[in-house]
Amino acid sequence: MSSPRPSIDANTALFLDFDGTLADLAPRPDAVHVPTSLIDTLLLLQQVLQGALAIVSGRPIAQLDALLAPLRAPAAGVHGVERRSADGYVWHLAAPSLDRVEATARALQAEVPALLIERKPGAVALHYRQAPELAQHCFDAMSAAVRESSGLTLLHGKMVLEVKPAIATKGHAIQAYLREPPFLGRRPLFAGDDVTDEAGFQAVQAEGGETIKVGEGETVASHRMADPGSLRHWLAECAARLAP
Ligand SMILES: O=P(O)(O)OC[C@H]1O[C@H](O[C@H]2O[C@H](CO)[C@@H](O)[C@H](O)[C@H]2O)[C@H](O)[C@@H](O)[C@@H]1O
């Protein structure tokens, strides 16, 4: 990992993960707080980068729009299962059947109501943040359900097990943006916090871009910031420096 500070300039294509990167982690997905100052910063960056700012998240695009309103940016949701280009067109990857996986998650939740299920377009997430002692039990059951399905893969995020189409990755979503205006020809920078962001880091570094890991943990990223607050502060500084 290199130590010099990463930099945003007028030619950057900026890709930002949401949970644990822009927003502090919360006990439940619907308890997340988005500071107004963050939205102001993102609106300013969107302007100075001429639209080359995208949110790349495990959340559905509809949730990102609601959480970040009035910002409406290009967004890759559900780890790339859905992707909205800068012109507003939304691409959807065909998802294999999630029936087996969803049935397994619901059976686990019937045993332990503290488990939380998110049924997203093309994916199922099982959150065990309120029952962390069940991590291994949930992992084993969801892994078995994935093995009995086809075309799916299991992501082990922060207190969450997410099953999504194997072909959907944040790396593929970022590569697709880099082939389109206004991202085309720009130097990418991606900030993320979780193992699910590593595919995005690899894609950006393959294009000669910079990557920022937020928080602890092994990573291929070239830079690190301590927490979402540090990233928000740095983004605000960059926006102020680049503003006309
Ligand atoms: O790719 P991201 O933007 O980082 O989204 C990954 C998942 O984030 C959300 O779950 C995580 O954040 C919650 C709120 O802080 C937290 O309660 C949970 O334990 C975390 O795993 C979101 O709910 C998922 O849909 C995203 O895939």
TrEMBL record:
One GO MF term: metal ion binding
The record's keywords, sorted A to Z, are: Hydrolase, Magnesium, Metal-binding
Example GO biological process term? trehalose biosynthetic process
Which cofactors, by name? Mg(2+)
Keyword Transcription regulation appears in the UniProt entry: no
Entries under Pfam families matching the protein: Trehalose_PPase
Which reaction(s) are listed as its catalytic activity?
alpha,alpha-trehalose 6-phosphate + H2O = alpha,alpha-trehalose + phosphate
Per the record, the pathway is: Glycan biosynthesis; trehalose biosynthesis
Q: What EC identifiers does the entry list?
A: 3.1.3.12
- Name the protein family: Belongs to the trehalose phosphatase family.
What is the protein named?
Trehalose 6-phosphate phosphatase
Q: State the organism of origin.
A: Caldimonas brevitalea
Q: Which gene encodes it?
A: otsB
